[in-house]
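quick one: beta-D-glucopyranose bound model?
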Amino acid sequence: MGFRATYFFIFCAFFSQIGILSANHNEEKKQFVSNLISQMTLEEKVGQMTQLNINLVSKGSSIYQLDEPHELDKEKLKEAILKYHAGSFINCPGYAISQSQWLLIIKEIQEVATKESRLKIPIIYGVDAVHGANYLSNGVLFPHPIAQAATWDSSWARKVAEITAYETRSTGVSWNFSPTLDVMRQPLWVRSYETFGEDVLLAKAMGLAAVKGYEGNNLSSPTNVASCLKHFIGYSWPYSGKDRTTANLSEGIIREYLLPPFEEAIKAGAKSVMVNSADINGIPGLVNKKWLVNVLRNELGFEGIIVTDWADIYKLNEVHKTSPTLKHAVKSSIDAGVDMSMVPNDYKFSQLLIELVNEGEITEERIDKSVTRILNLKYDLGLFENPVTPNFEYSKVSSQEFEKVSYQVAAEGITLLKNQDNVLPLSINQNILVTGPMANSLSMVNGSWSRTWQGNDESKNLPEKLNILQAILKNSNKVSYVEGCGFDKASLNENWEIEVNKADVIIACLGEYPATEKPGDINDLTLSEVQLRYIEELNKFKKPIILLLVEGRPRIISRIEGLCSAVIQAYYPSEEGTMALSDILFGKVNPSGKLPYTYPRQTNNLTSYDYKESENIGTNFQSGAFNPQYEFGFGLSYTTFSYSNFKLIEEHVVDKEVLKFFVDVTNTGSVPGKEVVQLYISDLFASIAPPNKRLRAFEKLSLESGETKTVELAIEAKDLAFVGIENNWILEPGSFTAKIADQIINFEIN
Ligand code: BGC
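yep, here:
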């Protein structure tokens, strides 16, 4: 790098400290990057578009069997960077490693890239830090995104992202494959817990907060990382419910229910997007020009990097069968706008891409566009100046301050779904039996993406952290434990009855084994048979049962729900959140989480809260077939709230006007509590069958016992628009109904 560029970086670093980037930043970047590209060979350019798995350059008998302790293989590394000019690496070497191990890896890689390579272009390294820096051995783990959404307070998603960015950057990694902005429209889908739930507005608010938290105002800051919006688009609505399978979706539905969170995040400047590995209506995400080029690039004006998901060019040939050859797959993905291919385990992508350019099938101009975007991001991250980490102390990694945030997120997200006869909170005088397969394990509360991909290797957990049983023991010493049953063993364990006899109350910790992607596919949403049977057996003892659900998607519990006095949805609360769970059980924390999805009652009735009336007609031809176990937005507290004085400042409004709704909320119980005020609006008639209602605004507030607050929720009339027959947003005049809790207002749009 020349004197001029070095000088410029120092200049930028100075201003970045006060959050003001030079107005010349973009101009300087343009010059710097185009100058670099003008010196690059085709091979060097294509290399930049190639993303490799760290295992490929690690010592071991195969990429699946790495040596212990982990070490990079210098020869393989040089081959990757100096021969194949790779521009990016990803992933952790099998499991989470320490900060110093990370820094060593990144340093070794960057030394080859920035000292030995001809043009000294730094590598960009990416990981999936999806609920905290989960591949840093002592990184603070947070409740998974679904539990963050259950707080209904986007400031938590922002704080989680800020801390995740801080801890991730401390390892030398500057690119995070998060947030998942897929809207959860298919509860069978294993990755439901990685989303911010089933509602568009809630997902949009949480996703935006996460992007702001990751990227901040200046990517070259030592505490920010580039975000990656996943997975564009339609991944979360597979018809079969299985991972990476077809979504049968109309353009209108995609635009109305799936696109808005991406659109919002892109407007906020998100730097990269990962493509859906599956297909929409048979068109794989990776070759879908309509969505990648027409919509993402041209309509939304996205200028960042489009990266494929894991090994997806191969899937075009081997799984989707839309490409008869790998070469065809490479060409189709580049034609559809892909900038970087997560190859990740060989060099065929770059070799075939070079051939395609040499044969005139792809222009070098097209390649230059992708390389420009990739180098732009490296420049924005300050990697040319600081390829490992910016100069910074990172004294807060794994700090109590960060752990406390994780505790608070859990405390605000964990959702009380049933509390018959106020069985909760518990008293420390009661004899408590803690039981079930989720009770005595850290992996079970952390879920997947926790120190390993699937998150189920107990040996990688930190022994000082508290599982559910241990957290309950912190609040009471009258606790006994027996596992009782496994996840899906045919029979119950032995000798559990003795412990039940001694107990006054039973906390049954049930749920689903952590999993992500294909390993988490299921054929039945119902909670496993053995767990259901266990509750039935426990019920014979006529003791109050508190069902504590630890799960990534709403597993059906209707067979046993009536046998339980209380039900708590803990999601995957994380090892910091177990104490919050315990504090909720004992009344030290008043629960305030609300479900970010509809909890179904039957496996074949997976209707979301914003169903259409046709989905609500029962076999008796009457309305009312929508009958979930618990509704979207539902969650109890140890206090009660009442609503009154619901007002709209204008009942007759015209397009572009603001609709201001006011409501008084009173805490009518005896303890302080937090309530989420949720404004739902129904469009009574529309040219496309209208949803029964849509969430249009929400706000979480704290109220002392007896206190009343007036809440104002303002929306614009255009927020009531929908995607019409022509696939564009329209606002039709007509009658609407607004509802907050039991308060209703009818109004007109003229
Ligand atoms: C997942 C992505 C993830 C990528 C890199 C894929 O299998 O679908 O969400 O970012 O792997 O680890």
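The pocket of beta-D-glucopyranose is lined by residues 90-91, 128, 177, 230, 274, 277, 309-310, 517 (CB under 6 Å).
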